[in-house]
Amino acid sequence: MTILFLAHSWLRYLVLAVALAALIALTYSVATGRSVRLARILANSFAGLLDLQIVLGIGLVMGGIFPDAVTGHLMLMVLAAIVTHGAFIVGQQSSSDRRELGIRLGGIVLALALIVVGIMAIGQTILGRSALPTFPQ
Question: What is the pLDDT of residues 67-89, one digit of tens each?
Fold first, then answer.
């Protein structure tokens, strides 16, 4: 269980880094109309990593690590994934690449806001740890 917890904890940094890269690439693509492929790759990578993070979190919950604050955290993270995937689906139905990428950009911004609130809901900071749950030995 400790390995699963560490994987979940450290994957957060990769999720945030890819989200930042996706935000930069999407903003550039929306503003200039170029680098559309890279923006899509980074946005899709963010969605996939977010999904993996949720699967690891659900594994922790199923493993018995379930403090009271985790309920809100889990709901916010699932909502962030729904927003991300929903923006991608709506974006795919748009009439132009720029509009599609703009919708994806908005979805990732909203998802990141939910992620930040979700991380803070368990008493942690975005880039550090303030309190770790204790594990039964």
Answer: 666 888 899 999 999 999 999 99
